[in-house]
Amino acid sequence: MAKEIKTIAVLTSGGDAPGMNAAIRAVVRTAIYRGVKVKGVKKGYNGLLNEDIIDMAPRNVSDIIQRGGTVLGTARCLEFKKVEYQEKAAEICRKHGIDGIVVIGGDGSYRGAQALSRQGINAIGIPGTIDLDIACTEYTIGFDTAVNTAMEAIDKVKDTSSSHERCSIIEVMGRHAGYIALWCGIANGAEDILLPENYDYNEQEIINHIIESRKKGKIHHLIINAEGIGHSTSMAKRIEAATGIETRATILGYMQRGGSPTAMDRYYASIMGSYAVDILLEGKTNRVVGYRYGEFTDFGIEEALQMQKDIDRYQYEVARRLTL
Ligand code: ADP
Ligand code: F6P
């Protein structure tokens, strides 16, 4: 028989993402609504190991749904990969009466949740990352806000780029995943999109494309470059030297990870937070919440981590077609 869950905890781990606060709020209020005590763990797995744990009540999560970042703080905790620290964390959970935990983060954070589950603490993951790079789900908390933030910034750069008839390289976040780059590439009407998934891009092809576009009457050339490719500034210098067209690089950086979450991020994060508590209270553990084919659902963490996700070739091809 599944153990009775009387107290749960929530933590955020890995890179922060807009909408994490909506998920924390939903976890806290759903737990209390369901008659369960709830605690907040500060600064990810670090805070768990340091017993940085606070009681949460409905008013602790007032007025946070519209705020970017995470009110619990987040961290990367490398020691948590070691079993001795996982055992220590489970001991700390038991000491604080924590029977179950909701971990909001990316797939690294799920490994931590999986470890806690192995140590007898029921654990459920929620996908929180601006990168959209979690295979079991079509939605991750923060992507929608990040891509809209980047899109608005790129529109502004495009205005000045067109006025000066320049070429612009804009670097967006995504060390290993090109979803922000692909979406901005289409949403901002970029002429070229460089994705970490296609690392072996050909710079000469881009140079030829810029020259052809100019001949066709285009007054700007926008290249969206994902962080995983990088080197935007040196690329701009080479392109300017090869084409004779003024070329500037803009690296958008961490502004893409902050800011008030969009309605979509607030909405989905709220449902996922509530869903995570519901399945925790059903006795489920070692699972991650996802959104697939129009429904909220959950997967075993191991199964979720085995799934593969790649850029949709058709969508990438559409981006290329529309640069005529
Ligand atoms: P994300 O969750 O966004 O993928 P990371 O990969 O940095 O971010 O992972 C966040 C944290 O999750 C790590 O700092 C670590 O505390 C924990 N973690 C990552 N991998 C493991 C692992 N193999 N075992 C246990 N904990 C892990
Ligand atoms: O995972 C989100 C993300 O913003 C990636 O796009 C980026 O590569 C990484 O986090 C940066 O992480 P850090 O906060 O360690 O610089």
- Tell me the strand order in the biggest sheet: 3-2-1-4-5-10-11
- Name of the top-level CATH class of the largest domain: Alpha Beta
CATH architecture of the largest domain: 3-Layer(aba) Sandwich
User: Helix tally?
Assistant: 11
How much of the residues is beta strand, in percent? Answer: 15-25%
Number of domains: 2
Gyration radius over CA: 22 Å
Determine the CATH topology of the largest domain.
Answer: Rossmann fold
Q: Tell me the overall shape.
A: elongated
Summarize the topology:
Elements: E1 7-12, H1 20-33, E2 37-41, H2 44-49, E3 53-55, H3 83-95, E4 100-105, H4 107-118, E5 122-127, H5 143-163, E6 167-172, H6 179-187, E7 192-194, H7 203-215, E8 221-226, H8 232-243, E9 247-251, H9 263-281, E10 287-292, E11 295-300, H10 301-306, H11 313-321
Parallel strand pairs: 1-2, 1-4, 4-5, 5-10, 6-8, 6-9, 7-8
Antiparallel strand pairs: 2-3, 10-11
Adenosine-5'-diphosphate (ADP) binds at residues 13-15, 45, 76-78, 80-81, 105-109, 111-112, 115, 129.
The gist of it:
The chain is an alpha/beta fold and 324 residues long. 41% of the residues lie in helices and 18% in strands.
Task: Supply database-style keywords.
single chain, Rossmann fold, 11 helices, 324 residues, seven-stranded mixed beta sheet, 2 domains, binds adenosine-5'-diphosphate, alpha/beta
Give an overview of the whole structure:
Helix content is 41%, strand content 18%. It is α/β, with parallel strands linked by helices. The protein has two domains: 7-142 and 261-306, Rossmann fold; 146-257, Phosphofructokinase domain (Rossmann fold, 3-Layer(aba) Sandwich), CATH 3.40.50. A seven-stranded mixed beta sheet has the order 3-2-1-4-5-10-11, sandwiched between helices. It has a four-stranded parallel beta sheet with strand order 7-8-6-9, sandwiched between helices. α1 runs parallel beside α9 (263-281), α5 (143-163) crosses α6 and α7 crosses α8. The mean pLDDT is 96. Residues 13-15, 45, 76-78, 80-81, 105-109, 111-112, 115, 129 line the site of adenosine-5'-diphosphate (ADP).
